[in-house]
Specification:
SMc04008-like fold, mainly alpha, single chain
């Protein structure tokens, strides 16, 4: 890959992040526990990272605001619309993948 300037790199990363967020908003069938089991992160992780970045820059942002930035709606609304109870297999996989 050719050398790119810092501004362009940040713009490309931001565009990829926005596309990831839009993809996750469209894939409401994919549960957070599935993301955690397969990738080790979920929508909540992304919203936490957005909040941490805001905090590091001194930008005022609440946890609810960062979640809304990721989910496209309030977390409570997303949960009531799309979140399903984790089944036994999902819970077992989560426990196995998050042992320390």
């Amino acid at each position: 890959m050719s050398e790119i300037d810092e501004k362009t790199r940040v713009e490309l990363e931001a565009a990829a992040f926005r596309r990831l967020i839009e993809h996750l908003r469209q894939r409401t069938d994919v549960q957070n526990i599935d993301l955690m089991n397969l990738a080790g992160f979920c929508r909540n992780c992304l919203s936490n990272w957005v909040k941490e970045a805001a905090d590091a820059k001194g930008v005022a942002m609440t946890r609810d605001e960062s979640r809304e930035a990721v989910y496209g709606m309030s977390y409570d609304e997303w949960k009531s619309r799309y979140q399903k109870e984790a089944n036994a297999d999902q819970k077992t996989a989560f426990e196995k993948s998050h042992r320390h």
